[in-house]
UniProtKB/TrEMBL annotation, chain A:
GO cellular component, one term: plasma membrane
Family the UniProt entry places it in: Belongs to the ABC transporter superfamily.
Topology in membrane: Peripheral membrane protein
Domain ABC transporter: from-to ranges: 7-241
Organism of provenance: Halolamina salifodinae
Main location: membrane
InterPro entries per record: AAA+_ATPase, ABC_ATPase_HisP-typ, ABC_transporter-like_ATP-bd, ABC_transporter-like_CS, MetN_ABC_transporter-like, P-loop_NTPase
An annotated Gene Ontology molecular function: ATP binding
UniProt keywords, alphabetically: Amino-acid transport, ATP-binding, Cell membrane, Membrane, Nucleotide-binding, Transport
Protein name in UniProt: Polar amino acid transport system ATP-binding protein
Location in or out of the cell: Cell membrane
TrEMBL record, chain B:
UniProt domain ABC transmembrane type-1: residue ranges: 70-264
Transmembrane segment boundaries: 21-46, 66-91, 112-133, 242-266
Subcellular location: Cell membrane
Family affiliation: Belongs to the binding-protein-dependent transport system permease family. HisMQ subfamily.
Species in which this protein is naturally found: Halolamina salifodinae
Name of the protein: Polar amino acid transport system permease protein
Topology of the protein relative to the lipid bilayer: Multi-pass membrane protein
One of the GO BP terms on file: amino acid transport
Transmembrane recorded as keyword: yes
Keywords: Amino-acid transport, Cell membrane, Membrane, Transmembrane, Transmembrane helix, Transport
Main location class: membrane
InterPro entries for this protein: AA_ABC_transptr_permease_3TM, ArtM/GltK/GlnP/TcyL/YhdX-like, MetI-like, MetI-like_sf
């Protein structure tokens, strides 16, 4: 294990106007690690992920990717974002592009990769998420589970170092949740570094290396999944887990 | 009044439908009667021929000045349609800018060009700009065309810009965020993700504005631009005949606006993102 | 158009007495010939009418505002006695009505920039001239265009001011317009504008032609019904008197500069 984490949050504070949403977050995600962030609604989980991708700016502290400060004002945001894949609750596929078009767009436009090369790579990625026969379908022709898998392939196309998942199964019909979690499980097995916000406790317990519980903009407790779910240290964690039953 | 009745307090759906049909019929019959009276007036009212068909035939001859005027408005329309839509993209982007200065300037631009009559703008440009020069020193000796093109472009860029802004703002913010999260710059995300979709939303409004643009060329008559209304005024003052030149001018405008409107409807259907679901 | 609306009883029998009010029709506004000021009619025609009917004949004058395009039929219907409305004497009109001797002469003139190199009609060939839509100046420009085999561009503006602006702004080399109207502009802007000088149609037709180039001549007359000869001849005499005794010049200089 490296001594420095791949993705590091240090004393991160975030305000929306007067509202103090993140209150000094310290967290490190090591290379190859899968951290699951859980916590009640409104506790700041999404905001934390969005700050890591600079979709939100922080007011205090620092976030570093492999030692490079992401949050510095002179950081090359577009470059750093390529190294951080993000998958959203609402898929956010580009509706005017086919599945393959969604996957190839950023490699072609941002990296300048030749069309054929990008197509080939898209083929591989769509196969990896189980959608090789849907490459020419538009998002509106796909089920929610399929769309979310395309979104994962799209993020992977930029070869990110870290993948961020923000409640990616919350908008899905229950019978479609499994296929998306399956893809994430495969990714974890391949050693992808992942930070996952989810309400799927079964998945968290099974796949996570570490559980992070957030409440009111603070990290309340972290720990190995087994220990966390069977023997929580804090009252807050106990409360949260008891409500899940 | 019964809660379960089909009739509301005003009229049932069936009554409403019939009333609508009746109203439409009345309008159609009135228009038909008017047109019949207009075109056949010589037969209906003895000695009172509203359309001088001889003059109409003369004005419609290939050598007539009306064709020159028609070609002029077609040219100025095509040119300013392209230019105002291109400028409109920048106006729309300015309007949604997060930079207060840019957004503020774009807003002032739109407020001014939508908030003052086109007639005022064309006069301000054609008469106002040369006033900055000493008499006889204004360098553009055929200022009518540049003034017409600039005025129409500035005015309609404000409208296309607003149409495009509406198209952009109706997109979910997730589209921009997804594109940015992949490492695209703002400009790349706009070009490849936001604008192609915003365009589709904006097509009906932009198309509508292009039809208005055709009709706005008539206001160029105040700057001695040789267009159709000036031709009408000329014929009228020479011949004291209203309907022959009116019919001709009306037909000329419709030969542009009717196909344009069909094109806009077609483009609107093709662009409708919801149609993407169909194979 | 033109009436049937107002009392006609006193003038329909064609033999009015001296004491009667004379009803004069005019297409107001057409400054400076006829316009309203503070709700009262005024202008060159009004003052001429007052001089003729009130001062010289000692009768009352009623100055009526009538739409110009129906003004002749109103005269024929007997709704008023005469028309004084800057009306050009034309052969067409003479078929239906009679005119007094000309009481005003308008010339179509050419005004250019002070430093223009145009010094004759021929200098306009291939150039752009500005006119006011629907005026006799516009017609004179059309005739000139025909004379030049089409080698003249005529820009038509809504007002004479716009036409003069076009010359000041280099959009046209000359304005073709009535001498009276153009004289106002030329006098107001005498640093920038001038008339093109030289002989024109006026020199061919008159003993005392103006110095500036004239493209055409129009004469205005007072219009009468065909059967009103006695009255018309009386007024011709009065017109001659007004020219002799200086009244005409006084009225003229009230309204015109050149
Ligand atoms: N764009 C925003 N503007 C203002 N407040 C926001 C915004 N986004 C989130 N918040 C607030 O920040 C807090 C944390 O939100 P979020 O990170 O979405 O929580 P979670 O994802 O844990 O449910 C909430 O109180 C929410 O209302
Ligand atoms: Mg959330």
């Amino acid at each position: 294990m490296n001594e420095a984490p791949l993705l590091a949050f240090e004393n991160v504070h975030k305000y929306f106007g007067e509202t103090h949403v993140l209150k000094g977050i310290d967290l490190g995600v090591d290379e190859g690690e899968l951290v699951v962030v859980i916590g009640p609604s409104g506790s700041g989980k999404s905001t934390l992920l969005r700050c890591a991708n600079r979709l939100e700016e922080i007011q205090e502290g620092e976030i570093r990717l492999a030692g490079t400060p992401l949050t510095a004002s002179d950081a090359d945001v577009n470059r750093l974002r390529q190294r951080i894949g993000m998958v959203f609750q609402s898929f956010n596929l580009f509706p005017h592009k086919t599945a393959a078009g969604n996957v190839t767009l950023a490699p072609r436009k941002v990296r300048g990769i030749a069309d054929e090369k990008a197509e080939e790579r898209a083929e591989t990625l769509l196969e990896r998420v189980g959608l090789s026969d849907q490459r020419d379908s538009y998002p509106a022709e796909l089920s929610g589970g399929q769309q979310q898998r395309v979104a994962i392939a799209r993020a992977l196309a930029m070869d990110p170092d870290v993948m961020l998942f923000d409640e990616v199964t919350s908008a899905l019909d229950p019978e479609l949740v499994g296929e998306v979690l399956g893809v994430m499980r495969d990714l974890a097995a391949e050693g992808m570094t992942m930070m996952v916000v989810t309400h799927e406790m079964g998945f968290a317990r099974e796949v996570a290396d570490r559980i992070v519980l957030m409440a009111d903009g603070e990290i309340v407790e972290t720990g190995e999944p087994e220990r966390f779910f069977t023997d929580p240290e804090t009252e807050r964690a106990e409360q949260f887990l008891s409500k899940l039953l | 009044m019964s809660e379960t009745g089909t009739g509301g307090p005003i009229a049932s759906d069936e009554t409403f439908r019939r009333l609508g049909m009746a109203a439409a019929l009345v309008v159609a019959l009135s228009v038909g009667a008017f047109l019949a009276l207009l075109f056949l007036s010589g037969h209906v009212i003895p000695g009172r021929q509203l359309i001088n068909y001889g003059l109409l035939a003369e004005l419609a001859q290939p050598s007539s000045d009306y064709y020159g005027a028609y070609i002029n408005i077609l040219q100025v329309f095509l040119l300013t349609a392209v230019m105002s839509v291109i400028c409109g993209v920048f106006v729309g982007l300015g309007r949604i800018s997060k930079t207060p200065l840019t957004a503020g300037i774009a807003r002032l631009y739109v407020e001014f060009f939508r908030g003052t009559p086109f007639l005022f703008q064309i006069m301000a440009i054609y008469y106002g700009v040369p006033a900055f020069f000493e008499p006889g020193t204004f360098p553009l000796t055929n200022f009518t065309w540049p003034a017409a093109i600039v005025a129409l472009t500035l005015n309609h860029a404000a409208y296309s810009g607003e149409a495009l802004r509406g198209g952009i703002e109706s997109l979910p913010t997730g589209q921009m965020e997804a594109a940015r999260s992949l490492g695209m710059s703002y400009v790349q995300a706009m070009r490849n993700v936001v604008l192609p979709q915003a365009w589709r939303n904006a097509v009906p409004a932009v198309g509508n504005d292009l039809i208005i643009l055709v009709k706005d060329t008539s206001l160029l008559s105040v700057i001695a631009f040789p267009e159709l209304i000036s031709q009408f005024q000329y014929t009228y003052s020479q011949q004291f005949e209203a309907w022959a030149p009116l019919v001709l001018v009306g037909v000329f405008y419709l030969t542009i606006t009717v196909p344009l409107s069909a094109l806009v409807n077609y483009a609107g259907e093709v662009a409708d993102p919801s149609r993407r679901a169909e194979p | 158009m033109g009436g049937g609306d107002d009392g006609t009883e006193s003038e329909t029998d064609g033999t009015p007495t001296e004491a009667e009010t004379v009803r004069v029709a005019s297409g107001i506004p057409y400054p400076p010939f006829e316009m309203m000021e503070n709700g009262e009619p005024t202008g060159f025609d009004y003052d001429m009418g007052a001089a003729i009917f009130e001062e010289q004949m000692g009768r009352e004058m009623e100055f009526l505002d009538r739409s110009f395009d129906g003004i002749i039929s109103g005269l024929q219907n007997g709704n008023y006695r005469v028309i004084m409305s800057a009306m050009t004497i034309t052969e067409d009109r003479k078929e239906n009505i009679d005119f007094s001797d000309p009481y005003f002469t308008a010339y179509q003139t050419v005004a250019v920039l002070e430093n223009s190199d145009i010094s004759s009609k021929a200098g306009l060939r291939g150039k752009t001239v500005a006119v006011q839509k629907g005026t006799t100046g516009a017609e004179a420009a059309d005739d000139l265009q025909t004379e030049f085999d089409g080698d003249l561009t005529v820009s038509r503006y809504d007002s004479s001011a716009s036409a003069f602006n076009a010359v000041l702004n280099n959009q046209a080399v000359a304005v073709i317009n009535d001498n009276t109207v153009s004289a106002e502009y030329v006098n107001q802007n005498d640093e920038e504008l001038r008339f093109v000088m030289g002989d024109g149609v006026a020199a061919e037709q008159r003993d005392d032609p103006p110095e500036y180039l004239t493209l055409s001549i129009e004469e205005y007359g007072i219009a009468f019904r065909k059967d009103d000869d006695e009255f018309r001849e009386r007024i011709n005499e009065i017109l001659a008197t007004l020219r002799e005794n200086g009244t005409y010049d006084d009225i003229y200089s009230t309204y015109f500069a050149g």
